[in-house]
Each structure stands twice: as structure tokens, then as C-alpha cells.
Amino acid sequence: MKVSSSSFLILMMFVTSCSFIKDSPDDIFNTVGLNTNKIPFSFERVFREIRLHKANGTLQLPAEDGKSMKKATCIEVVKFAYANTFKEDIKRIKNLNPNKDAEPIIKAGIELFEYADEIQNKDFMMIAKMIDEGKSDEEIDTAAKELDETKGIELDVRYTKVMDLLLPYADANGLEYNKL
Q1: How many CB atoms lie within 10 A of CB 4?
Q2: Closest Cα partner for 80 from 47, 120, 27?
Q3: Which of 43, 61, 113, 158 has the smallest number of CB atoms closer than 10 Å to its CB?
Q4: Phi, psi (5° rounding) for residue 98?
Q5: What are the tens digits of pLDDT across the range 131-161?
Q6: What is the C-alpha separation between 112 and 33, in angstroms, rounded?
Q7: CA–CA separation, 167 and 154 (whole Å)
Q8: 71 forms bridges with which residues in the sheet?
Q9: Smallest Cα–Cα separation from 40: which of 146, 117, 129, 107?
């Protein structure tokens, strides 16, 4: 098959122009902003709920057959429910092609989600292990409260930074949203 030079030029222009296609403000808002709803902002509450399920014997995960439930440890539940919560979000945010106005939002969003991911993969696992080992409610509450008062505060700072960038961007681009 012979390709003419003009056909080749048109093909190259098309391929080159595709890299200049920017994601819409709506795509950026949805990918960064809406996914922040997955971030827990009270680690004490999360672990209180897990302990309650364990005490009631309702700490369960889907069985291998996908149709029934099986009893689980706290570590298994935390791995299942939290270990991969943000992996796809981080990947989607990194794959966005923002215009100049949205670049700071993307950067702040990546920082927020990577920090939340780190907390869930390290700190959540440590507290889940404490529950499985039968540590006292007081010890677990203290660890969760400490997490809230240290990394939780930093997480809130990063969240606020994202929202301080994202909401004016949404307003400037005529996007509708509800603030809770």
C-alpha cells in the first residue's frame, strides 16, 4: 500500500492534534472532586464501626463463590475495603490532560489521593491488626484519635487545598455542584 505524502501529513496532523485535546472542566471536576467523597474524615468512626461489626459477629467479606459471605478478620476487611480505594482514582487523575488553569488542581488532587492511599495502606492496617490482636478499646481509640489528630489534620489541609482550587474553577466554567 502506497501512502501519499499529503495523506501522511494529514495523519500526522491528526495524531499530533490528539495530544492537544484537553479534558473538559466537567471531566476534571468529576475525576478529582467527586472522588474526594470516598475519603473518610473520621478514622475513629471507621474503626468504631469495624469493632462493632467484629463484636456482633458481622465482620464479613464476600466468599470465593461471590454469592455468599464469610467471616473475616479486621485486616482482611481493611485490605478488601480500603487497600485499593484510591489506586484507580490516582491513575485516572494522572491520565487527565488539563488546560493550564486546571494543572494546579491535578497536582493537588494527586497529592491528596496519594496521601489518603498511604494512610489506608499503612495506618489502617496497623489499627486493624490491633483489633485482631484483641487490644483494648481504649488503645484502639487512642491510636485512631492520634491518626485523626496528625495525619487526619494533614489530610484535611490537602482536601481544603483541592477544594479551594476546584470550586472557583467549577464556578468559572459554569459547572453546577452542591456543597455539603
Answers
A1: 8
A2: 120
A3: 61
A4: -80, 160
A5: 999 999 999 999 999 999 999 999 999 999 9
A6: 11
A7: 20
A8: 60
A9: 117
Q: What is the rounded CA–CA span in Å between residue 159 and residue 121? A: 18
Paired with 62 in beta bridges are 69
With a CB cutoff of 8 Å and minimum separation 6, the contacts of 38 are 85, 86, 89
* Mean pLDDT calculated for residue range 167-178: 94
| Contact call for residues 59 and 72 (beta carbons, < 8 A) | yes
- Give dist(CA 152, CA 164) in Å, integer: 18
pTM of the model: 0.82
Q: Which amino acid is at 160?
A: T
Range name among 16-20, 92-96, 116-120, 144-148 with the lowest pLDDT average = 16-20
